[in-house]
Amino acid sequence: MGFNSIFLLSFLGFCLVSNGSDHSKEQSTAILIEVDQSGNGDYRKIQDAIDAVNSNNSEHVFILIKPGIYREKILVPEDKPFITLSGTTKAGDKTVITWSESGGIFESPTFSVLGSDFMARYLTIQNEHGSGAKAVALRVSGDRAAFIGCRILSHQDTLLDDRGRHYYSNCYIEGDTDFICGNAASFFQKCHLHSLARGTGAITAQRRQGPAEETGFTFVNSKITGAKSAVLGRPWGAYSRVVFAFTYMSNVILPQGWDDWGNFSNQRTAYYGEYRCYGPGANVSRRVNWSHSLSSQEAKPYLTEEFIDGAAWIRSVPSHFRRITIASGRHVNRTS
């Protein structure tokens, strides 16, 4: 039995163990593509594997990325749905996708997801540019995207959570200025948010622009740490909506909690809430008077994946894999 066969069998066991925590209703079959920098896979580069997926794909394609540092700028295009990119172990720091670029928020991302029904598992996604400029690590503009056990790293605008419904579970996200921003409807569960700001930073900058928009960020059972001080959020859009529940807040969080971004009118329209958070930064007695300490009834809509209709689309790790012939000729028809 060759190295690749042993590796695949080990990974299949890992997937079956992992299935129980990935909110699936049923097991599934996926087309398997392997990426390995050493040449022991179907492709050496991640983007080449994505490019090999057919336009308007209707099957689940599982791209397994072996450990290494991949210096690539990645795009999952709008016409390629149902793609999963996965590292090989739950240690998300073993498979690293990194780039260094600053500039516009739509031009600088290391990794851009435009396709729907996307999933990433156990990856580090990093923009190495550093502080002082917009340098997005991850842009998510497709609907129904999920990120499991990923590390998302930059400074300003780390995660551009642009639009669509998104799910983040057990992710580590760090930055200094507005490092989770955009106008998606997103549910963050058991995530660790770390502020790198050396002055006063802002964790979120949600961009909801009208009362009818069903967007916002909700963080449940998460943790906030940091280097110095930060606010929980400030309104990029006048109707910005962010809720933290059951979340540990270290003393990095300033007593006022929230900021109106220098515009008094935002205080009348932004919706910022907290529910049963704890830790030295969670004391609401000195919060700005236009934020909300939520009752159990007020908090209820934000506490589960129903906020993003997650039960309908968050899929499991596939339990079976098959290979198909593609342009490289390396795949053969086979079921694992």
From TrEMBL:
Assigned keywords, A-Z: Aspartyl esterase, Glycoprotein, Hydrolase, Signal
Extent of the signal sequence: 1-20
Pfam (any one): Pectinesterase
SUPFAM superfamilies for this protein: Pectin lyase-like
Biological process, per Gene Ontology: cell wall modification; pectin catabolic process
Residues annotated as domain Pectinesterase catalytic: 35-310
Keyword Membrane on entry: no
Listed pathway(s): Glycan metabolism; pectin degradation; 2-dehydro-3-deoxy-D-gluconate from pectin: step 1/5
GO MF, one example: pectinesterase activity
Catalytic activity: [(1->4)-alpha-D-galacturonosyl methyl ester](n) + n H2O = [(1->4)-alpha-D-galacturonosyl](n) + n methanol + n H(+)
Gene3D superfamilies in the cross-refs: Single-stranded right-handed beta-helix, Pectin lyase-like (2.160.20.10)
EC number: 3.1.1.11
PANTHER family: ACYL-COA THIOESTER HYDROLASE YBHC-RELATED, PECTINESTERASE
Described function: Acts in the modification of cell walls via demethylesterification of cell wall pectin.
Recorded family membership: Belongs to the pectinesterase family.
Protein name (record): pectinesterase
